[in-house]
Write a structure and sequence with these properties.
6-stranded parallel β-sheet; Heat Shock Protein 90; 22% strand; 15 strands; alpha/beta; 389 residues; Rossmann fold; 13 helices; 5-stranded parallel β-sheet
Length: 389
């Protein structure tokens, strides 16, 4: 994050307690808190940052960039929704930006969920070396009526599983982090599967990325589900319920990857993008895949790179200096036609999400249209969709 070089940025959402004398039975007020361990804000600047074109330190424009409009826009949006925004910060230690929004209460009765019924009273073990991640998963499980214990490393997790088995109170499932320092998730899962008393325990693995080779190894270990962080509540719930359902069935348990790509052949991909941060982002998304990425900083360079290479896929930013993405796409299509080559899939990348913007991309010759900020799951899904044999 721009102002947080170390530590973390945490989003917390909770309900504001209502007083007895001022209770609106039809609404509830939620408070959203964004907590960081960044550079903080001097006390005498805390209120000024909500003004237009204002930053806490003029030098941040040079170091961090930005126009000083972000918080002004946020304040306006919050107030339009009937809420308030404020900040509590200490220079050098971090900040808490928080805002409140009133919401109407649901009046329709909840529909019974068989999955939630299956989770009620279940026991789960969380193995993750990050305290915030453990807290997030634990609160999700508690909300579904499951009980949980959490540990911060693989060896402690294995010990907890063995002790629970010995005391005849075994865990029904394990939520396991893939990237841990002392013992990684794959090694931990392997040790669990080697123990005859634990081998049938359902395992759901969480990670910010899954290298293809590691996915294949994990499948061999019988890991039930893979989920990308930050994990979505419904994805985790469905994965656990699915894994628990498999335990009541005979036969092998095929692993399922949620939000992760299936094994793919290595592709040669051209990224035409003038923004260095976006180039780095896409490069990071593809880091643990077999694909080879070539980057060009504008449309003119991109067209020449395309002609000189043999690409399977092109991601094309539409707004660039020298030559924009629409023009570059048209030139590529004209060259392919003149050379008698098949059309390579081109996916437009743009901050514009209106239907007419999407149509403009298609009219230029693009096959698909992804809006910024670019999401890893959508980018990988586009790769799989447009390069499938």
């Amino acid at each position: 994050m721009k102002f947080t070089e170390a530590g973390e940025v945490l989003l917390d959402v909770s309900m504001v307690p209502q007083t007895t004398g001022d209770v609106d039975r039809n609404t509830a007020e939620l408070i959203f808190s964004v907590i960081d361990t960044g550079i903080g804000i001097p006390a005498d600047k805390a209120q000024d940052i909500f003004e237009r074109f204002t930053q806490a330190d003029a030098s941040t424009t040079r170091k961090y960039g930005g126009t000083g409009l972000g918080l002004t826009i946020s304040k306006s949006l919050v107030e339009l929704m009937g809420g308030k925004i404020a900040v509590d910060s200490e220079e050098g230690k971090g900040s808490v930006f928080f805002f409140t929004i009133p919401f109407a209460l649901q009046t329709e009765p909840l529909v019974a969920d068989s999955c939630l019924e299956d989770l009620m009273g279940r026991r789960g073990l969380i193995i993750d070396d990050n305290a915030t991640n453990r807290l997030i998963v634990r609160e999700m499980l508690t909300g579904w009526g499951a009980t949980s214990t959490s540990v911060d490393n693989g060896p402690s997790g294995i010990t907890a599983l063995q002790e629970a088995q010995t005391s005849h109170q075994p865990y029904d499932f394990v939520v396991l982090d893939y990237q841990m320092s002392a013992m990684d998730g794959l090694t931990t899962a392997s040790e669990i599967r080697k123990d005859p008393g634990l081998s049938s325990t359902a395992i759901i693995m969480l990670s910010s990325s899954y290298p293809q080779t590691e996915i294949m190894e994990a499948r061999k270990l019988g890991i039930d589900h893979f989920l990308y962080k930050p994990v979505k509540r419904n994805d985790l719930r469905d994965a656990i319920c699915s894994a628990l359902g498999k335990l009541r069935m005979s036969g092998p348990k095929p692993a399922v990857v949620t939000g992760a790509p299936a094994a793919q052949k290595a592709l040669k991909i051209l990224l035409v993008e003038d923004n260095e941060d976006n180039r780095l982002l896409v490069s990071t998304f593809l880091k643990n895949t077999p694909h080879h990425l070539v980057m060009a900083e504008n449309g003119a360079v991109g067209v020449e790179a395309f002609k000189a290479g043999d690409y399977d896929m092109v991601f094309m930013d539409v707004q660039m200096p020298v030559m924009d993405g629409y023009t570059a796409t048209r030139e590529i299509r004209q060259w392919e036609t003149a050379e008698g080559r098949p059309a390579v899939p081109i996916i437009a990348l743009t901050a514009h999400a209106l239907k007419e913007d999407e149509q403009k991309s298609f009219d230029a010759g693009c096959n698909g249209h992804l809006t910024k900020p670019i999401k890893k799951t959508k980018l990988l899904a586009a790769l799989a969709e447009y390069t499938a044999d």
